[in-house]
Automatic annotation (TrEMBL):
The chain crosses the membrane at residues 6-30, 42-62. This is Uncharacterized protein. Keywords: Membrane, Transmembrane, Transmembrane helix. The keyword Transmembrane helix applies.
């Protein structure tokens, strides 16, 4: 069983189990002989609770593009340029200790790509990368994106050796891979 299938099964089981309690409470409320306004108010309250739970779990399992744009800032140290467009993305679900990995393939304009590459090459904060391979990285690299040659750099972070910030440059496609490992 691959990682994506496992992730979908866990998401479904989690959503199913979390959704049962409000449904049971709604059933109990409907069968009680309470005033109609009270019944409807409680049903609306429980339904909104259930929708917010579904939304929270969904966002945790499938982060939006804004999450990956924020990871760009975390890895590089500067905000993403307006031309940044997330093409492919993958993230692991945080464990009990908050450890997770995220990878995104981001398309930049020619000017932004060249500027970023020059800044990273001149920066003393980035050096040669000793890459850590994870399932999330494989999700992006194994896709049919024509990814052939990647130049990897790692951001030096002396204070937090359990965090790794990688950037990969795809010169032909004018794309970058933003890879964050927190373990």
């Amino acid at each position: 069983m691959d990682f994506l299938t496992f992730k979908l099964i866990v998401a479904f089981l989690l959503l199913f189990s979390v959704s049962l309690l409000p449904l049971i409470l709604i059933t109990i409320i409907i069968r009680r002989k309470w005033r109609k306004k009270l019944k409807y108010a409680l049903i609306i309250l429980l339904t909104s609770l259930q929708v917010s739970i579904f939304y929270s779990v969904f966002i945790a399992l499938y982060p939006p593009d804004s999450f990956y744009i924020e990871e760009y800032k975390t890895v590089i140290g500067t905000p993403a340029p307006p031309s940044a467009n997330v093409v492919k993305k993958s993230a692991s679900y945080p464990d009990f200790h908050g450890s997770y990995n995220s990878v995104s393939l981001i398309k930049l304009s020619d000017l932004d790509f060249t500027f970023l590459r020059n800044e990273i090459n001149k920066s003393k904060n980035f050096g040669e990368a000793d890459l850590i391979y994870t399932e999330t990285l494989n999700d992006v690299l194994n896709s049919d994106n024509g990814i052939k040659q990647i130049t990897w750099k790692e951001r030096k972070n002396a204070k937090k050796d359990w965090q790794h910030h990688f950037i990969g440059f795809l010169d032909q496609q004018k794309m970058v891979i933003i890879y964050y490992v927190n373990h």
